[in-house]
Amino acid sequence: MTKEIYVIIMAAGEGKRMKGELPKVLHGVCGRPIIDYILCGANAVSKNKPILIVGHGEKELREYVGSRAVYARQENPLGTGHAVMMAKPHIEGKSGYAVVLAGDTPLIRAESLEAMIEYTIENGYSVVGLSTKVEDPTGYGRIVRDENGDFKRIVEHRDATDEERAIDEINASMYCFKIDSLLSSLGNLKDDNVQGEYYLTDTLSIIKENGEKVGIYCLEDHTEILGVNTREQLGDAMDIMRRRINKRHMENGVTLVDPENTYIDSDVTIGVDTIIYPGNVIEGDTIIGSECVLYQNNRIVSSRLGDRVEVGPFAYIRPNSDIDNDAKIGNFVEVKNSYIGKKTKASHLVYVGDADVGENVNIGCGAVFVNYDGNKKYRTIVGDNCFIGCNVNLVAPVTIEDDSFIAAGSTITKDVPKGALGIARSRQENKEGWVFERKND
Length: 441
Ligand code: UD1
Ligand code: CA
Description:
about 20% helix; binds calcium ion; 10 helices; alpha/beta; 2 domains; Spore Coat Polysaccharide Biosynthesis Protein SpsA, Chain A; UDP N-Acetylglucosamine Acyltransferase, domain 1
């Protein structure tokens, strides 16, 4: 596309219907705040930094978005039209197009925005609005068309007559405007509606009345339009996004035993032929290799798994863990900020925190890498081919050299040299007849 495009994102609203403290567009959907999806959409259609309209929750929003946007402030949320007026200094005197997006519609695809823009430019429209048809249009603005099916106006749910409420084509709150047409129509907006707000939607009929061409680009996939105004809609958005993510992984050759109960964040990568059982929650920028098996109910956060790694059931792999090929992290094992070497096994009831563990190590049941003295954290190093017995405590900082063997029940506080037996527990004593003697007392 040769025309210059500026993207305006409206995110200054109060988000009252969410009933909480967190600004609406910072709520997470599959591991990313809603606004992140919109910013990515904006970047896909324009090289210029998006203009973010902020107001309510401005501080948190600026903190999160940082230099990824330029900002315009809307002191009082007097409506979507008023919000866009705040972007005026950024687009005045520019030629080309302004793409206006709502900050609360995370499911929109970049391809759909591109299609809307292309449709606008190729057909010489002064503005095109995105729409879709839904079964239950309650709450959305409706696209009112004339007897020829041409665009007439958008009416908000609250301002609509019963007849208008029966219309199933809704306004997505995403538009492509010629900058000149947008600016002149904003100047003519009035707040004569039920909410006493300046509706951006009215600019379309103003532009039409001015004799310019106004179009509607109707999207087939209505899920792209979903606006998040309530927690229920947030749940719907998560559901739709989750299905999309899971579908992508299945298309790439990953087996999801129960896709409805598999929760994978949007930035996770998974190799081919990996099998994932129900209840797995895979978060952040986790990378999982090929042919892994994740049994039921694990949580894996921002970590890397090599190929053929087995995890779970009920394991917790915390951030910055790196589990190398053919390793096994079994049931009720927790790993944090650690490297686990190839073919190493921690099969049951283990905590590994802040450690570098070599290849082919066996970590016995109940072993604990004691990394915290209540004040600071320390690292443990375990070499290759070591055997860590059951119920061992490795008190960091400590180094267990290659090929060594730690006896069960030992609390190890000193380094263990290569090939040595480390044993640190009191010797067993058997007191013959002690039980019977006590009974006779
Ligand atoms: C809006 C549309 C409606 C459409 C729906 C789609 C208007 C008048 N209505 O309604 O036709 O069907 O989106 O999701 O445009 N905002 C500001 N400043 C304001 C008001 C809102 O920045 O003064 C921002 C909000 O933060 C939000 C976006 O604009 O991100 C949309 O506002 P919202 O109040 O959610 O509009 P809807 O009632 O959903
Ligand atoms: Ca909305």
